[in-house]
Amino acid sequence: VLIAIGRDACTKNIGLQTVGVEINEKNGKVPVNDEEQTNVPYIYAIGDILDGKLELTPVAIQAGRLLAQRLYGGSSRKCDYINVPTTVFTPLEYGSCGFSEERAIDKYGNQNLEVYHTLFWPLEWTVPGRDNNTCYAKIICNKQDNNRVIGLHILGPNAGEVTQGFAAAIKCGLTKELLDETIGIHPTCAEVFTTMDITKASGQDITQKGC
């Protein structure tokens, strides 16, 4: 089991070539299959060292825990590298879970997707009179799978808290219909996901006039 800490994969001088483990020569990272197994069947890798996977501590912890359970506990559960809630803690937070719109199009095709989006105005911004069209929310739905939500994105206050909650719903198979049937807590930022009705394909205006 290989564990690499940090953003640089320091794999050039640890003897991988001796045992035949392949690495991506461009970045030093290790390609693995969906069970974190390298091209050498008895050698596994987890964490930031993985080629094409997210560089996030909670992801590495989850992958390591599940790998140990598969190797020694008879489990078959694999790490989900797609539906990972992620936040950028900038002054205006950005949160996401699942596919980006671009990756969803590559995987499913634009014709099989419906993207809902809107600008919104947080309640706490009304008193200081901040711009009511700065925050943004978007969901990506797979039309071929009951409009299942495969991507969720939000730019606004407390985006991390909002994303963490919806991540569990996405893991449970959240659909656009279920979102529409969910009663929102007014006035919260998360409520915006229960009231979306404008698709990107429609080209309709998404600017808001009030909360």
UniProtKB/TrEMBL annotation:
One of its GO terms (biological process) is cell redox homeostasis. Residues 1-64 form the FAD/NAD(P)-binding domain. Its cofactor is FAD. One of its GO terms (cellular component) is cytosol. Residues 84-196 form the Pyridine nucleotide-disulphide oxidoreductase dimerisation domain. GO terms for molecular function: flavin adenine dinucleotide binding; glutathione-disulfide reductase (NADPH) activity. Keywords: Disulfide bond, FAD, Flavoprotein, NADP, Oxidoreductase, Redox-active center. The keyword NADP applies. InterPro entries: FAD/NAD-bd_sf, FAD/NAD-binding_dom, FAD/NAD-linked_Rdtase_dimer_sf, GSHR/TRXR-like, Pyr_nucl-diS_OxRdtase_dimer. PANTHER family: GLUTATHIONE REDUCTASE, THIOREDOXIN-DISULFIDE REDUCTASE. Belongs to the class-I pyridine nucleotide-disulfide oxidoreductase family. This is TRXR1 reductase. It comes from Notiomystis cincta.
